[in-house]
Amino acid sequence: MHTEDLTKLKIDVLIPTHQPGRIFSExxxxxxxxxxxxxxxxxxxxxxxxxDPQFEADYPGLLVEHITKEEFDHGWTRHKMxxxxxxxxxxxxxxxALPADRRLLEHLAEQFLDGNTAARGSxxxxxxxxxxxxxxxxxxxxxxxxxxxxxxxxxxxxxxxxSRIKTKNDLTTLGIKTFFCSNVCAMYDREIYLELGGFPYxxxxxxxxxxxxxxxxxxxxxxxxxxARVVHSHNYTGKQQFHRNFDLAVSQAQYPExxxxxxxxxxxxxxxxxxxGQVCRAGRPWLVFPLIWQSGCKYMGYLLGKRYRRLPExxxxxxxxxxxxxEGELK
Length: 331
What we know:
single chain, about 40% helix, about 325 residues, 14 helices, globular, Spore Coat Polysaccharide Biosynthesis Protein SpsA, Chain A, alpha/beta
């Protein structure tokens, strides 16, 4: 990126959707009200029968392609949208993430400006005198109004109030958090994205972190922009946490070159301790029990997912959240 002027940057917003509804309609309205408006909003939607043509009527800049549910893939579907774009910056979002204000795109895009030394802080490229180049920037996620207390604390643990730049220098201290970058709302330099091959073409989950590790290893920086905010949270049950973490661990097992040298268990334990302390200080110690239950479900899903190749095919499909991924995968 060679510019110091935000207005010269062309930005496309890329969103995979499945049976989108009221929240997606609100997302389109908020994107249209941004201080830095996207050139296009590109959507690949599964199950055309559930698509509301009113979306396109309300948002003329919407470009939609319909595919079947079986054709959807976390990595390839998003990569296909990138190949269709000629924008400078690609902003990936999910259909249930809402910009918290009018400056979401602005705060993310400014991370990529040549003159944005404040955002870079003290981070330096270890390769030499070349200035650090930011390849990706992701937003802070705020809890929805209906968010549970435990989820609020968990979200605050993962998305702090402080912005920072992460580079390969941070691998020894941050571990797996170095290349944490959530496609719930994450912006990428399209030139670098294509240069490094984009998201993996066939993955059950975690396409954002798999690609982000490649960015880090290539010497680029990832910006966490805390002032770029989206409203996004889920009140998952223990069972849902189990399925989600099973798929998370499967993705890690399938890409050992990305995850093997940065174990994730320690980060999970740190989160449990932090949240347990917060609920106790808030005078709600009974919440420790559902915290332990949910954490146990997460850990059991994670343990089984890491060992999915040793499990019977039927059990793998029962444990997974993404059933369609396994069609032909276990043959």
